[in-house]
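Example 3.
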Amino acid sequence: MSSSELKNAGLKATLPRIKILEIMQKNRAGHMRAEEVYQALRDEGEDVGLATVYRVLTQFEDAGLVIRHHFEGGHAVFELDEGHHHDHLVCVKSGNVIEFTDPIIEERQKAIAKEHGFKMTDHTLVIYGVSAEYQKPED
Amino acid sequence: MSSSELKNAGLKATLPRIKILEIMQKNRAGHMRAEEVYQALRDEGEDVGLATVYRVLTQFEDAGLVIRHHFEGGHAVFELDEGHHHDHLVCVKSGNVIEFTDPIIEERQKAIAKEHGFKMTDHTLVIYGVSAEYQKPED
DNA sequence: ATGTATGCAAAACATTTGCACCTGG
DNA sequence: CCAGGTGCAAATGTTTTGCATACAT
């Protein structure tokens, strides 16, 4: 249940937090913007302010429950942190996203951070391309 | 000279464009925010508006002269496009950026795209971390 | 109870745009 | 000269914050 996950994370189990966590869990596949989470709440008839959505998502991020990504477009997107890091393969035609991890790349990233004296906190790798079904011969 | 580079790119060689290009070339090492470019102009006594800096940087991006990155922090940074791809190591404390390329990672990315039937068009890898000089012992 | 969380509105940023004026070719 | 470029200010879009009220423990 969501409320115990929240308490585990050191957060009081308030209604907005429970609802927002549930929405993130329901939308496990997608990366949501704060505004989209807010809309999803309203669609469920919940009266939660946008400011609260931002506050809660930030708390979730601090608690390690979600990851905030800064893709292009001047806004952040959030996804549930399911514990295992992954990278993204994005189809520029369809917008489809495939997740993957590659042990060799992970290894090299660690080595590179170390070489430069960095204590790595995070890393993101996005490969943009055209997926098989969208490759038209005439393109 | 900057003005011929601009004409090559199909842009009229106006004073703001020339100055902004020169600033980007002088700061070849760094990734600059629009605000920083604007400050650099003012430091040189040039009377260029911030809106123009944004407009010119966007034109430069369209013309392939600069690359716009969306790292953390809710703002974009721009760097000269020198034609060769590279990845980034970003210090989350200072905002410093180090560029690198790793042949093994490049190779793996190609392989992964291929495995998934993707025709790769682009890729970005950012490693976030704390650089040596910002690592406090007690942390 | 009581300290924390929330909602609302306003503020704070980053970026874009409308419009009258200026400038490069 | 004249289309396109620029400066300024106002508009936009996103995220944060101040403050009085509501809520979880």
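Residues 34 and 54 of chain B are 6 Å apart (CA to CA). Residues 12-15, 33-35, 50-51, 54-55, 58, 74-76 of chain B lie near DNA strand C (CB under 10 Å from a C1').
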